[in-house]
Records
---
Amino acid sequence: MKNETVLQQATYLKRAEQGPESASPELRQTVADILADIRNNGQEAVRVYSQKFDSWNPESFRVDQETIERATREIDPALRASIDFSRAQVHGFAMHQRGTLHELEVETLPGVKLGHKLVPVNAVGCYVPGGRYPLIASAIMTIATAKAAGVPRVIACAPPTKGGGIHPAQLYAMAAAGADEIYCLGGVQALAAMAYGVETIKPVDMVVGAGNAFVAEAKRQLFGHVGIDLLAGPSEVLVIADDSAEPKLVAADLLAQAEHGPTSQVILVTDSTAFAERVIAEVEQWLQTDWPTAQVAAQAWRNRAEVIVGADRESVLRIADEIASEHVEVQTHDDNWFFERLTNYGSLFLGKRSTVAYGDKAIGTNHVLPTDRAARYTGGLFVGKFLKTLTYQRVSAKGTETVAPHVAAICDAEMMEGHAITARMRLERETGE
């Protein structure tokens, strides 16, 4: 294929030492066993796994209003203001997106009216990951967007901290984003409880949100029983840059994404070998001196980083589209050239003043995005994911006379005689023939 040839012909100044992470058979079986146990045994099984994995087994997993209010008081007012800013931007942009989605009714033939309604999902469960970092913005991205879509019931789960309970800032973000119910529950057991329903949690119709490999596998196995947003793997960034960019800034952007975890994918694609070498030197300098999360970022840089040099900007474009990264930054002398031509990315960050961190935390675009090359066929989470496009028809006598003969003929050809009868009965009622 043409794109494969472009990648094969490109020069790699650095190749990843490891391939993409995939769920092992053991992990898949573990998740399947947990889901089956919770489906069969409900709350009792949830308690067993919460105690086993999180050392957490309170009288009630639901977070009460007093605890939410206490968390609100505990966090710094400046941080509260920043969380409120993020919520306003994410919810506001989602509402603007909602405004572009319209219901439809059109008369396609005389007497035939077709249309669709946009109906929110009735109940959504949002998983807010904890683990290495208490991901405050993740609560906003899922909960606030679902609320912008008009979802009547939005519940949210987050794992407990080592000290017990949800991290105060994370809990405040969940409440501020509009969650109707909040539960301190993590991992596969949280996804199962929301999807199947247990004693204290009514089941939802859709589960969304990022998480570790166990959470991603749980969503994969639950899909069909409930809807999901997408299957998100380790975080990814691809930076398109030329010699007009700042090597130190590009290096910082790569390492910032690398701090997500040792399997995070970070890629630089450029048409300048000299620029690529300068970026590599800046990365090594950061890691050897004062990069604050070097212990994690260095692993990702070693395991999953690639530095690729294309012959020209056309080859750089094709390389980026073939990789189809979750986040794509463009820092070149002509950013619009790439903006007009790129087709495969989760979210795009144009110019040196844009950065993945803005999208991840507060600027308004959603950070739940496709990974593992899924950007070739889907976008990320947005307000429309929570809306069902439901079609309908209205048919008059005139419409029946036009449509029924064609339907009956096709039914006859397919040997679906019962279908043909339903069309001809309606035609006879109108024409008497």
Note: The two ends are 58 Å apart (CA to CA).
---
Amino acid sequence: MSAVPGRWWRPRSLRTQLLFWLVTLHLVAAALTAWFTFVAYGDLVHNALDEQMRLVADSYAGSDPPRTPRPLDGNAALVRGAFVVQLWSADGRTLRASSWPPLAVVPLQMQPGFSDASADAPAPSRWRVFTAEAGPRADQPRVQVLQNEDYRRRRALRRALLEGLPIALLLPLALLILWLIVSAASRSLRAVARDVASQDERRPTELSLARVPDEIAPLVQAFNQLLSRMRSAFATQRRFVQDAAHELRTPMAAIGLQIENLRAHVPAGEATERFNQLEAGVTRAQHLIEQLLSLSRQDAPGRPMPGEPVDIETLLRESVSQLMVLADARRVDIGFEGSIAPVVQAPAAELRSVFDNLIDNALRYAPEGGVVDVRLHEVDGHAVVDVLDNGPGIPASAIGRVFDRFFRVPGAPAGGSGLGLAIARTAAERHGLRIELRNRDEAEEGGSPGLLARVHLPAASMPLTPG
């Protein structure tokens, strides 16, 4: 939870907001109920007890001779709210009898009827007083009845608290019910979040609205519309790349053929050097076109290619043999070593794309007269393929970006397109393989400088000892 600076605190969690406002609502409702009950029941108790005080006073005033009040103790008068009966002389100066004598500090009220009085003894308190009217005879005593006001307030407050108690007891149950409801709704949102997280950025699909609450459905629909626009943009991009690459293949092949035909007519010297540069540029352009076509085919939507059991050892030997021409041209010593023979369930062409690009990348970065080793072995019980070269390696600042499309390490030799590693990673991830790049001086104790490209084969592959 966090608050926006300069604004009132507001939890970011929907569940916390609901619980916060529900607790507040219940507490306010309980307080209002208690207050209303206190006021309403207080008036009811007040009127009922006033009527009882009047009846008691009339019963004593009407008796002839006057009755003697029954004695009370302080606990009955102050705590239990018993009526205190006083009999005064007709002139109101002398207290003739009292059920609780310590309350004689409250004098006879001059006006008959109800009134309120304060007494500092025997304890500071407020008293409700009813004074009966004077009798017809001059010697007839005056009757006055008193009751403690604190007792009345306590009785009304107790009743108010009892009325608010059900709401307070209902609060935990309501919170539990709300928690269950919000948790059920959160599961739907988490399911939508998992669907979003599992999206393939190259092939986004629409999210299902079957389990989405009505309040969240507009957001999901807007997200689906965004995905639809993304699919359209990706499709347009793929069509452009495919069309451009296909259109360029024929003229570039023709240019390459014409350059080959011109080689015999180029005079020696500076012209030959310029001609070699032109030929290298055309070769690089042809390589880029082929990689663009390969990348567009990988990004194209549709059903994945059917998998088949592929012997990785045989596949690597074929890749090394195919790239032997490039290794000989750069005078690079390339070798293969296999201690296991795992089998991977995947399209052979996709796996060839992974290893061909990694080996091709190693051959391009290895110096002339350098070494490239391809090793098939186990690491911690898992089958891996290592492609090692003794080239310059990759700077630490750039190793996290080498899989980005068209990214080339500063100072890289000419001829690359920046797509080989991106193509290899895309094909690898599609079939459960993982590519790891590390500089050899960091990866191997005592290892020579260079790069280690390690392909972690799927756990389902079956490493077999070669026979």
Note: Residues 149-197 form the longest helix (49 residues).
